[in-house]
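Quick check before the chapter quiz. The format below is the same one you will see on the exam, so make sure you can read both the input and the output lines.
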Amino acid sequence: MFRPPLIPILILSVVLAGCSTTRQTLPSFPPNVVIIFADDLGYGDLSCYGNPTTRTPHLDQMAAEGMKLTQFYVASPVCSPSRAALLTGCYPKRVGMEKHVIFPQYDYGLHPDEITIADLLRERGYATACFGKWHLGHRPGLLPLDQGFDEFLGVPYSNDMSRFHRKPGDKYPHALPLIRGNDVVQWEPDQHLLTKVLTEGAVEFIDRNHDRPFFVYLPHPMPHIPIYASKEFEGQSPRGLYGDVIEEIDWSVGEIRAALERHGIANNTLVIFTSDNGPWLPFKEHGGSAGPLRGGKGSNWEGGQREPCIVWWPGHVPAGVVSTEIVTALDLLPTMAALTGSEWAGDQPIDGRNMRSVLLDEPNRTDEDRALEDSHFLFYTSRGELAGIRRGPWKLLLANDELYHVESDISEQWNVAQANGALVEELREIALRHDAEITRLARPVLQVDTPPWEWPADRSK
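Here is the expected output.
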């Protein structure tokens, strides 16, 4: 394990100390955890977030029976860095994963010495499984089974990184594999069936492990371009093919919930639904919608990093709550640790915060909770450069000194930097100082020389 010196920032052991006995009592047995992570889903793509034509009844019901977060941020506007942050509770730069996405020819990935949510929960006795798109490294030693997961079924990178979607003359012999464990079980799987196959895998895992604590990570490959839906959903949505894809993901959520209810464990299962970054706008009707937000995937506008997030845990997360608290994907690891009573096995710094009091809507906040309200969130570009900072209602984008009050200006239309010069300088200094600390103590990725597998010779199919 990496052992950098302790420094005065958020450390998980400190974060967990905020769970006082005066708060709502949790079950004596740890809850199951399900994280459903869509790919390139926009803030405006679900009916419960205002989409007028896409039908998402299962997610709508989940929001009505749980909590809908309206200011939930992911750590990057592109896939691989965002996924690294979700699983480790760290800014991508802290774990060396900030430099855009991992392509099939790349030889590095998230270092297995990093502690992921799966590592944390498996140490607590959970069965752990990943069903879907990994995209954190695919060389030997970098796949989910090396990062705390007992089982894996899915694809190692984005669905457009296949031989069907390569440009003419591409020198790299890439193809898209379907992997079980560490082994390729099929080259170029039928992408119309991906959502269905991965959902069935997750449900079967729940069926096998319903009598013990489990963690299911379901990172759907869709609605990343190119989009596919099964024959049961294709042509059914008024929104067109993109709507078909979203409605099939909604069906998937319904299947997961039905499995939990069938085994009588819904009240002991925390389910979180969100996405890795905003919609891919250049693809027009084949891409998603950021709703009222400006920008989309690849940008640091709100549409690139503010995502839908629904939290459901009957009997614990109160029903029908719409939370405007700022919560980020970085916060999931320390929050899962607090909610499951997991013990931290490392001393490396992380950036996430324990947001248990927010997710459970606890009325009595501790001094630690109040301190979190004054914290900040850094924005990084898709290539890992510092881009901005959010603190309270204010968001500063550094490149052009753009300051927005994003709680009154959700679409980032009115730059008020000129009238708030002192605040601009204060936020800039905080962002630069925090980024310098992250850079100084950044941990390495793992580079692997061994090829991941033998690429199929026939690329003509």
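If your answer matched, good. Residues 393 and 405 are 5 Å apart (CA to CA).
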